[in-house]
Amino acid sequence: MTLLQTIGFRGQAEQREKAPFRLSPRMVSWLQVGPLAVVLIALFALPTVLFLVVSFFDYDRVGIYPAFMLDNYQDLLTTPSTLRVYISSLKFGLIVWSITLFLGFNIAYFLVFHVRRPMVRTVLFLLCAIPFWTSGIIRTIAWIPFLGRNGAFNQALMALHLTDKPLEFLLFSDFSVIITYVHLFTLLMIGPIANSWAKIDPALLEAARDSGASRWQTMYLVVIPLAKTGIALGSILVFTQVMGDYFVVRQMSGGQSASIVSMLSTEIQAMQYPPASANAMVLVLFVAIMVACMMRVVDVRKELVK
Amino acid sequence: MSFASKRKIGRRGLMKGAAAVAGATVAFGRAPDIWAQNIKNVTLRHAGPPVTALSIIGTQATKDLGFTVQMQATENADLLNRIMSQSSVIDCADISLTYMPYLVNRGILQTIPVKKVKMWDQTNPLMTQGKYPDGREVSKQGLAPYTVIYAADAEFKKVSQAATDWLAVVPTVTNADTLGIRPDLIKRPITSWADLISPEFKGKAALQDQPSVGVIDVAMAMEASGTIKYGNKGNMTKAEIDKTISTMMEIKKSGQFRSFWTSFDQSVNLMASGEVVIQSMWSPAVTAVRTRGVACTFQPLKEGYRGWGYTLGVMKHLSGLELDCFYEYLTWYMSGFPGSVVAREGYYSAQPAMTKKFLTDAEWDYWYGGKPAATDIMDPFGKLVEKAGHTRDGGSFDERMGNIAVWNSIFDEDRYLIRRWNEFITS
Fold first, then answer.
1. ipTM for this prediction
2. In B, which residues are within 8 Å of A251 by CB distance?
3. CATH number of the domain where residue B338 is located
4. Which domain holds residue B321?
5. Can you tell me the distance from the alpha carbon of B337 to that of B112, in angstroms, rounded to the nearest whole number?
6. In the predicted structure, residue B11 carries a pLDDT above the cut 80
7. Which neighbouring-strand residues pair with A64?
8. Are residues B27 and B155 in the same domain?
């Protein structure tokens, strides 16, 4: 009799009948969920609760004091800057999302359906992925000497006599922020979309053609619906990255535009933790609502289980 | 045994001691062998900003003193945060004068009796009494050093505006900031802070993205251009903050600012690449631009400089042998070697006469004397800063440190300032 049997929670009689000890299915599920749950609770849920609590605290220069006051939220929601950064982040989010979706969709389509030889496909995939082996910070900063007033691009334009004065809008502008985001995040779109197509039998497309579907109909009725999960996942990745960004906006706009997180960082630098917490809570809530909306459109869970 | 505390020396004796040190460089009348044996395993952890917590200083201290001094560099709020929340894992720290309002009555620092600071008499009266060496009063706008370094009591429950027997921290490094410019691209003399907001430099000006510094720099410019007169630029009222920020927003909307910088290298790159021709800047950043062969001037302006300072403070948890070692280190720190290192970065030591002994005559004349460099001038790491024959911007130590208009500061209304600054940056 094993140790487990002796301390088993089922009746001894029952144990003896079904000799090998089995965990109940419920227990198995708990064990499977367990490790991730522990990580999420320790590293996400608890800190979030902590932020939530601190966001109601009072503070001064010397410290933070337990209290329940809504001032931090009131200050946050009544200053015009809050609305401005949310609108600006949303604007960046939408623009970057549509560009990366367009690029990601087409690149993934090319990689999956046009490239026939697996070898070539692998090489091309690697070409997309290799830039990700360097840090995002480097890939961001690398744009600065390229786009600057005396940068490589402006010098090339002037050498070709396409313009006689350097184009100022190229750097420290919305333009440079968007171009960097697109550069950084397009792969996040390519990956999931290509992945959701990779499982498709190419014969499916032939079947569509044989059944008399035009190219557009095939695209609209077969290809896009099959990419729905990938598009949704990619969109969530790109969107949350943009909303939570701090570095790219600060570097590439030259501090001219602010993001939600950079506003929060100014508060942290000034040791004002309660308003920073309130700011973080509102951001978490906002992104959660946006993601929930996307999940509404595509039931990612259902698609993944399929 | 307590080595440092055993030596009870009066003021006169102190000066004699200083003179002795002056003769014998870093040999501090060595303690008996037993001292050397005891301290062998002591390690002092010294936290500071990257510009002063340099490993060359730690290495030299370790060599000279017989115990280990370990430098830990962190920046801005992270440094203050470390001092406030993890003071038990550091022993002493470079503390900016602007951190002092955060540290009063927190039980983090232990006070340093003035009579235990051997080099006190060597410390510039600018820091200790609020007077220039020639007797003139120093500006009280912002956090002037002597208003924040003295503790009212041995526990540092309160700060004292006048000299007491207890120091919360000991002044070590100071400097005066002004605007950096690209003379080759501006092509006319710049003499006033007002030029920072002059439409002439539309799209070519920059500010530091740091609320209290940024706002004071703009305040200097606004006062110089005659738009507003402040009671105290270093501690504005709400109305003054409002007026300043709304003007700043108008200026920003007009496209005046090319960028707002947060880090040292950003400010260097903006200037070196020509994106910006006039901006608030730090002295070593100007030096860094120049080492790349690009013309850059740390421009003296008639309204004066924005002064700042760092100090050395010791954490409450030190006692016994470790505390004795700290006092040895403090004496060493004020005796010139660290001062010579920061001098080569373009900063000043709070004990200039001690620093002189660790600089060559050419270096002293260049950095402190405002005279043309007799030889090539190198930075602390041996890189060329200035070719022989050139003169430092702003002239001598007395000229530069003799005209402080305002000190770096933390406003009483800093909570309000941060809110309005965020509005400015997001507008």
1. 0.70
2. 266
3. 3.40.190.10
4. 3-176+307-356
5. 21
6. no
7. A59
8. yes
Same-domain pairing of B61 and B209: no
B258 and B404 in a single domain? The answer is yes
Token pair belonging to A152? 């490589």
Q: Are residues B201 and B141 in the same domain?
A: no
A-B C-beta contacts closer than 8 Å = 92
CB contact under 8 A, A258 and B415: no
What is the sign of the dihedral through the CA atoms of B415, B416, B417 and B422?
Answer: positive
* Cβ neighbours of B253 (radius 10 Å): 9
Does the residue A68 lie in any domain? no
CB contact under 8 A, A61 and B414: yes
Alpha-carbon distance of B203 to B222, in angstroms, equals 18
Cβ atoms of B272 and B289 closer than 8 Å: yes
| One domain, residues B154 and B255 | no
CA distances in angstroms from A214 to A52, A67, A106, A208, B204, listed in the order given: 54, 66, 18, 8, 56
Q: Do B423 and A88 touch (CB under 8 A)?
A: no
CB atoms within 10 A of CB B238: 13
* Residue B383 pLDDT > 50: yes
CB contact at 8 A, B310 and B48: yes
CA–CA separation, B417 vs B245, rounded Å? 9
Question: How many residues are present in chain B?
Answer: 427
DSSP H or E stretch at residue A139: helix A136-141
- Measured between CA atoms, the residue of chain A closest to residue B81 is A271
pLDDT at B4 over 50: no
Strand B68-73 with B43-48, pairing: parallel
Give me the domain span that covers residue A163: 79-305
pLDDT tens track for B32-45: 677 778 888 899 99
Tokens 């999956």, residue? A112
The verdict on B70 and B96 lying in the same domain is yes
Residue A32 has pLDDT above 80, yes or no: yes
Instruction: Compute, in degrees rounded to 10, the torsion defined by CA atoms B309, B314, B315, B321.
Output: 170
Q: Which residues of A touch B210 (CB under 8 A)?
A: 269
Burial of B378 (0-12, 13-18, 19+ CB in 10 A): middle
Q: Residue A249 has which token pair?
A: 């906006």
Phi and psi angles of residue B236, each rounded to the nearest 5 degrees, phi first:
-75, 155
DSSP element (H, E) containing B305: strand B305-315
Q: Is B29 helix (H, G, I), strand (E, B) or coil?
A: coil
pLDDT band at B12; cut points 50, 70, 90:
very low
Cβ of B410 within 8 Å of Cβ of A61? The answer is yes
Do B402 and B351 reside in the same domain of the chain? no
Mean predicted confidence (pLDDT) in A174-182: 93
Nearest Cα neighbor of B403 from B139, B134, B125, B127 is: B139
- Comparing CB atoms, the residue among A84, A88, A172 nearest residue B259 is A172
How far does CA B235 lie from the centroid of its chain?
19
